[in-house]
Automatic annotation (TrEMBL):
InterPro entries: CobQ/CobB/MinD/ParA_Nub-bd_dom, DNA_Partitioning_ATPase, McdA, P-loop_NTPase. This is Cobyrinic acid ac-diamide synthase. Pfam families: CbiA. CDD domains: ParAB_family. Residues 4-185 form the CobQ/CobB/MinD/ParA nucleotide binding domain.
Length: 217
């Protein structure tokens, strides 16, 4: 399966969640490749930091920030159980290519009851990709939720009502994510019983369920 974390907005958690989900699947013994499609290369930086810290390799990280991604990703997917694409900010050509490459797109957003969760441009790119890839699965993932995050009618149904819908799993605002990123680790390696680690396990499980042929709808 190919999973892409995309949002034209920067700082929403694309890299954080891409590394976390990739790490979770790798820890479960699956073969994972992370494609860093951001010219800034933050996932590559993480992997270099990890090597410098002398930590064992969890998954390979390759830099592929070009709009031929959709032609190159399928070959990678043949050698892996999961290919995770850490998406670029802003660049529409790269975004298009990533959307054509992927089976599932997760759009990290910081939830707010006041405005839409994604730019019109982002949603238009998803609609456009669906012309070629009608089976493309798209979900928002609510990231950096505060303890007091108030969403209008904060129920599972409301989340499912959005288009695209939001995953039931949410990720809180947790220092562990920044601490892990800075030391080339994933949150589970800092403390496998932390709330952050449990949230990521739940997220990875929901993604696996959604991506398995049995649950296709
Ligand atoms: N759930 C979270 N809790 C705390 N900090 C977070 C969380 N998600 C992301 N961050 C922090 O926010 C910043 C931006 O996240 P990042 O994943 O790099 O975003 P993007 O890749 O979308 O630009 C980073 O410093 C990261 O550590
Ligand atoms: Mg990033």
């Amino acid at each position: 399966m190919i999973l892409a974390l995309l949002n034209q907005k920067g700082g929403v958690g694309k890299t954080t969640l891409a590394l976390a989900v990739a790490g979770e699947w790798a820890m479960q013994g699956r073969r994972v490749i992370l494609v860093d499609a951001d010219p800034q290369g933050s996932a590559l930086d993480w992997s270099e930091m990890r090597a410098r810290e002398g930590l064992p390799r969890l998954f390979s990280v390759i830099g592929l920030a070009r709009d031929t991604l959709h032609r190159e990703a399928p070959a990678l997917a043949r050698d892996a159980d999961l290919v995770v694409i850490d998406g670029p900010p802003r660049v529409a050509g790269l975004m298009r290519s990533a959307l054509l490459a992927t089976d599932m797109v997760l759009i990290p957003v910081q939830p707010s009851p006041f405005d839409g969760w994604a730019s019109a441009e982002m949603l238009a790119l998803i609609s456009e990709a669906r012309i070629y890839r009608p089976e493309l699965v798209a979900r928002f993932v609510l990231n950096r939720c505060g303890a007091r995050t108030v969403l209008a009618r904060d129920t599972a149904e409301t989340l499912a009502d959005h288009d695209p819908p939001a995953l039931a799993s949410r990720i809180g605002q947790r220092i562990a994510f920044a601490a892990a990123a800075q030391s080339g680790r994933i949150v589970r390696e800092l403390d496998h019983e932390s709330v952050a680690a449990r949230e990521i396990s739940a997220l990875a499980a929901e993604v696996a369920h959604l991506g398995s042929p049995r649950s296709a709808s």
